[in-house]
From TrEMBL:
This is ABC transporter ATP-binding protein. Residues 5-230 form the ABC transporter domain. GO terms for molecular function: ATP binding; ATP hydrolysis activity. The keyword ATP-binding applies. It comes from the Bacteria. It holds the Pfam family ABC_tran. InterPro entries: AAA+_ATPase, ABC_transporter-like_ATP-bd, ABC_transporter-like_CS, ABC_Transporter_VariousFunc, P-loop_NTPase. Keywords: ATP-binding, Nucleotide-binding, Transport. PROSITE patterns: ABC_TRANSPORTER_1, ABC_TRANSPORTER_2.
Amino acid sequence: MKNVVELKDVTKKFKGFSVEHLDLQVPQGLITGFIGENGAGKSTTIKMMMNLLRPESGDVKVFGLDYQTHEKEIKERIGFVYDSNVFFEGLNLKDIRRIVAPAYKQWDDPLFYKYMEQFNLPLNKAIKTFSKGMQMKASLAIALSHHAELIIMDEPTAGLDPNFRRELLELLQEIMMDGKRTIFFSTHMTTDLDRIADYIAFMRNGELVFNKSIQEISEHYAIVKGGLDLLDRDTEQDFVHVHRAPTGFQALTNNVQAVEDTFGDTVIIERANLEEIMYYTKGEKHLV
Ligand SMILES: Nc1ncnc2c1ncn2[C@@H]1O[C@H](COP(=O)(O)OP(=O)(O)OP(=O)(O)O)[C@@H](O)[C@H]1O
C-alpha cells in the first residue's frame, strides 16, 4: 500500500509538551481518523503535515515530496478543511473563487459551481453570515474544486448538529468513490469513525499508540467480562486495563487469542468500540 504522508522520527517540542520521534503513515485511497484526547498532539501533528509548523528534527514527506523543495506542488494537491473562516469574513464565495481559483493549476470552475448547488451555498452572501456547517461545506467545496488528492481536516464535525454531521460523513464517503482520494481527519466523535473510517491513528501524550486498520483493531481488541474469581496476577497479563466491580470485572484486551486460550468460555468477549479502547488505554503504558 502506498502512503501519501510519511512522518519519520519527527520531533516538535513546546514548553510542557512534545511530540517525540513520531512515525506516522497515511495510506492512500482510504479514510484515516485521527483520535486522542484533548492536548494529545493531533493539531500539532496536522500542522506539521501542512508545513504550518516545522519540526525540530525528522522527516515530513507528502506524496513522497519534501516541503523544502516542493511546497507549492504539495499544497496544490492538498485540501485543508477547517471549520473556522480563514478567508476575510466580509467576502462572499464569488469573491473567494476569484482569489483562490488562479492559485491552483487544477481549478475546475464547473465543479465549483456544481458543489455550490449541491451544498446549497449562496454565492453572494458574506461568509460571516454562514453557519459553522455552511463554512465547513464552503471549505470542502473549495478543496474539491481544485481536485485535491489529499483532504486533511482538523475536527470537521465538531459543533455540527447530528443531521448535518451525517450528511457530511456521507459526502466524505461519496468523494472517496473514485479510489484516488485520501482523507485524514481528527475528531473526538469516535462514532463517526465507526461509520466511515478505514484506518485509525490514535495519539496520546504526543505519542502514537497505534495506526491500524479498523479490521485489525476489531481483531486485536475486545472487551472481556467475567467473574472476579478468574483474575490473578497471571491471567491479568492478557489485559490492557481491568475494571473491577462487585458483580465482576470488565477489561480491555489487545490480544483476543490469548484471552480465549486463558479463559476459554468462562468469560464473555465482546467487540470493543473506539471509545472503549480510548477510555481503557488511558494511563496505561504497554499497549500495542
Ligand atoms: N504554539 C504552541 N506553543 C506552545 N504550546 C503549544 C502550541 N501549540 C500547541 N501547544 C501545546 O501542545 C499540546 C498539544 O496540543 P494540540 O492542539 O496538538 O492537541 P490536540 O490533540 O489537537 O488537542 P484537542 O483535541 O484539544 O484539539 C497542548 O498542551 C498545547 O497547549
